[in-house]
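Q: Here's a chain of 152 amino acids. Please give me its 3D structure as tokens.
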Amino acid sequence: MTMTWAIIIFLAGILIGALAVRLTNKSVKQQKTLKKELDKSKYELEQFRQELVDHFARSADLLDNVAKDYSKLYEHMAKTSTELMPNLPAQDNPFAKRITSLEAVKDEPKEDESVEQAPRDYANGATGLFKGENTAVTEEEKAQLHAEPKAS
């Protein structure tokens, strides 16, 4: 019986000792603080990334507005230079060379404006694509495709 009590006391001592070491060990405390710092750093990094994405989105919008305004200004200058100086030779007009190649930056369509219909991703009937048959779109089918009403 004394041997049983000795084993029980020995195991209890091991458990109490392990618990005491765990609670008083500096590395466990350090691990907990490092874990907290890591979580905090991850959160701050995620916030920074989101701010960066927002910044670039806003910058892109501003640059788009600048491009549109520049295009409008350039069109205005080109138009007024030809209106105010109609007899000016083309080589003396600084806008003459670029007027023909100038593409206006188009504004994005607003909600109330109609949007062109997206192209269909299918053909009328079987095309024979996988059978090796050569089929062509007839003029009637072309006319039918162009005659379909556009979505508004």
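Q: Can you summarize the key feature?
A: The chain is about 60% helix and 0% strand.
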